[in-house]
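Researcher: Let's continue the batch. This sequence belongs to TIGR03067 domain-containing protein, and it's 146 residues. Same format as the previous ones, please.
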Amino acid sequence: MNTFKSLAAGCAFAAGLAASAAMAADINFVGEWTGTSSSVVIGAGTHFSDSTGTAEAPFLSEKEFVLDIVGQKGQRVWGKLKSADFAEPIVFVVSNDGKQIHGANSDGVFSGTVVDADTIDLIYTQPGSEPTHITVAGETTFKRKK
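Model: Same format as before. Here are the structure tokens for TIGR03067 domain-containing protein:
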């Protein structure tokens, strides 16, 4: 009897996990997402043209961004990241469990968490190499624009 209860509990748990992962993986990311980035910046350019940050005194920024997702095929997603200063293409993939995002633009990378169907948290880093020579680390919680 104990074996049957353990087996039934294990099956119920596995079914719950599978349903949760399937639900997260089925999110359609296409549309506009908005958020305010909390960033630390060394140098100036692209989205941070107003930055006066140096290694000794980095620029601390709170900036509005729009993530405009125009396409998705399965786990592969693409669009543009826009601010008042700049717009650039981005691409990302969603993990098999639908809970993590990993992506890039022309000069940096980001990773994040799918909080729910309308919220994603992203961490962005840009190493300060060619072509911009600007170093950035920022966190943004994006909410789906309805």
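Researcher: Any comment?
Model: Confidence is low (pLDDT under 50) at residues 13-24.
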